[in-house]
Amino acid sequence: MKVTRKGKYGYLTITGDDGKVFVISDMHLGHANVIKYCSRPFSDVVEMNKTLIANWNAVVGENDIVINIGDFIWRGGIWDKILEKLNGKQILVLGNHDRRSDAEKAEKQTDKLLFVGDMIEIRYNNNRFFVCHYPLANWSASYYDMYHLYGHIHEKSFDVGSPKKYNCCVELNNYTPQLLMDVKERIDEKCRILREEKHQVESVSSSETTIITGKDLAALTSCSLRAAYTIMKEIKDKYHIKKVTHSHVKKYLVIP
User: Fold this and answer.
1) Where are the beta strands (DSSP E) in 81-138?
2) Contacts 24+ apart (CB under 8 A), 12-17
3) Which positions ≥6 away from 143 have C-beta within 8 Å?
4) Interatomic CA distance for residues 50 and 195, integer angstroms
5) Which candidate in 44, 53, 55, 228 could, as Cys together with 218 as Cys, close a disulfide (CB 3.0–4.6 Å)?
6) Neighbouring residues of 138: CB distance < 8 A, sequence distance ≥ 6
7) Which CATH number fits the domain that encloses residue 30?
């Protein structure tokens, strides 16, 4: 597998068929408190580190590449030891808990890190991925053909904006790196389901498609105007729409 960069600040391209490409985020190796914060199923940090490394090596081979979306190693001084234990090579997008100086030092001392940076577009197998540690509502070409891979929020969900994104945190991915093309298929399936739901909503009778305002919703639900506008925003975010109709309200509030 080969990784090349377009110019000094351009996108990365992964080519070759002698390996696989995986993705993972928020391993937090060496971070004891994350076990409690995120209810991880480990007795202590030693067990967590051993399990995460074992899971990684069970699927990643020496010729493979892992897109690591940050919050990788909790503290300095163990980067070289951790990298030596992990199969394959990495494209590392830094998280808020990654110390840049440690990552850049490791990048110079080993060939295990192919890229260290804050965010990057990656092209692989005729697909485009915008990789950032933080979840984004929209990104470059988000309404076209570019997917978004992120971490940071652990087991939580983020359904704002374009649905063409995936939470790569270990808590939601069996604490194991996932094949990039499997993740792409999961995103495609999610988008297909959302399109079907949207089509069903748009196929209701004309009486159900009457556009309503916040005042209409307040009167319909007997709630305050402020609450009505909050509900309107939630409906728009959930169904990815700009205007709310009676059918959206009925579907969202489960009104018979």
Assistant:
1) 89-93, 113-117, 119-124, 127-132
2) 12/91, 12/115, 12/120, 12/121, 12/122, 12/123, 13/122, 13/123, 13/124, 14/65, 14/122, 14/123, 14/124
3) 162
4) 41
5) 228
6) 161, 162
7) 3.60.21.10
Q: How far apart are alpha carbons 63 and 86 in whole angstroms?
A: 12
Distance CA 64, CA 2 (A): 10
Please give the Cα distance from 252 to 236 (Å, whole number). 10
Whether 102 shows a pLDDT value over 80: the answer reads: yes
Question: How many domains does the chain contain in total?
Answer: 2
Task: Tell me what pLDDT residue 198 has.
Answer: 74
DSSP run (H or E) holding 236 = helix 225-239
| Contacts (Cβ under 8 Å, ≥6 apart) of 255 | 249
Q: Which residues contact 56 (CB under 8 A, 6 or more apart)?
A: 24, 66, 86, 87, 176, 177
| Phi, psi values for residue 116, rounded to 5° | -130, 125
pLDDT of 203 reads 59
Range(s) of the domain holding residue 232: 206-253
* Most distant CA pair in the chain, distance: 67
**CA angle, corner 249, sides to 245 and 254, nearest 5?**
150
Structure tokens at 157: 């969900």
Same domain, 114 and 223: no
- Name the token pair of 67: 């897109």
Under the banding of pLDDT at 50, 70 and 90, the label for residue 225 is confident
Q: Is the dihedral of CA 27, 28, 29, 31 positive or negative?
A: negative
Name every residue whose Cβ is closer than 8 Å to that of residue 83 and which is 6 or more positions away in sequence. Answer: 106, 110, 112, 113
